[in-house]
Amino acid sequence: MEYLLKKEGEFEYIEEGSGPPLMLLHGLFGALSNWYSVLKTFREQYTVLIPILPIYRMVQIKPTLEDITDYIERFIEHKGLQGYATLGNSLGGHLAQMLALRRPENTRTMILTGSSGLFEAGMGSTFPRRGDYEYVRERVEFTFYSSETATPELVQEVYEIVNDRHLALRVIQLARGAQRMSMKSHLPDLKMPTCLIWGLNDTITPVRVAHEFHRNIPRSELYFIDHCGHAPMMEQPERFNRLLADFLSTHYLTACA
């Protein structure tokens, strides 16, 4: 799939389609490829925005959740967005929650999938084994229900990150910061319609985490996808996109009409 990566000031992002804004926030080891299916499907009806988060490329920004949320807020102001739907996976879901608490009047709807903020077991909290390709491959495969989803290209992307000492340290700082920053006490303040789409076989943010989000976010809906791990939009894209389309049509499109 071809896309145009725009560069404006401090921002790098993808913007495709037309209609109400749908902003996608990737996770700690996330890449643009994570969102291919969502972008292809939803650019027909929405303006899909994917900011490249300053985890690796913009090392002048501190690797903290607060600083990256500041960056997202500046991106929103740069684009002049008055209202939007936010979709976050893994660490991106954590950031979506923080953004929604800061800008509740602008976050019309929120979608979390495999989100951190309560509990997450991942590769980033300790220093990965640098130079050990098989270890990295095993940890990437651990993300998914089917190991086939961990393509050689995806494994290579993560391998290159953990073998750059500076980038690996940034990953560790962010992962530890996410583990320390529990969102539980803040979840009742998230009043916007929220969709939780979870892999039934997620080993990083297990099923119990999804149920806890559902119990504590007042206007939340919870959906599980079987034979699916931590990144449903990658592993079960058709099912994920159907659930997302139904939710957005009910809770977002009608409000924007």
Describe this protein with a few key phrases.
globular; 40% helix; 8-stranded mixed sheet; single chain; 257 residues
Could you please describe the fold and organization of this structure?
Helix 1 (36-42) crosses helix 9, helix 2 (65-79) packs across helix 3 (91-102) and helix 4 (133-141) packs across helix 5 (152-162). The chain has an eight-stranded mixed beta sheet with strand order 1-2-4-3-5-6-7-8, with helices on both faces. It has 257 residues and is of the alpha/beta class. The protein has one domain (5-120, 182-256): Rossmann fold. It contains nine helices and eight strands. The chain starts with a strand and ends with a helix. Helices cover 40% and strands 18% of the residues.
Topology:
Blueprint: E1 5-8, E2 11-17, E3 21-25, H1 36-42, E4 47-51, H2 65-79, E5 84-89, H3 91-102, E6 107-113, H4 133-141, H5 152-162, H6 165-180, E7 194-199, H7 207-216, E8 220-225, H8 232-235, H9 237-256
Parallel strand pairs: 3-4, 3-5, 5-6, 6-7, 7-8
Antiparallel strand pairs: 1-2, 2-4
Strand runs, count: 8
Uncertain runs: 123-127
Kindly give the count of domains: 1
CATH architecture tag:
3-Layer(aba) Sandwich
Provide a count of the helices.
9
Report the span from N to C terminus.
Answer: 30 Å
User: What is the overall silhouette?
Assistant: globular
DSSP helix fraction: 40-55%
Strand order of the largest sheet: 1-2-4-3-5-6-7-8
Helix-strand topology string:
EEEHEHEHEHHHEHEHH
Top CATH class:
Alpha Beta
Question: Quaternary arrangement of the chains shown?
Answer: single chain
Sheet having the most strands: 8 strands, mixed
Q: Which structural class best describes the helix and strand composition?
A: alpha/beta
Strand content: 15-25%
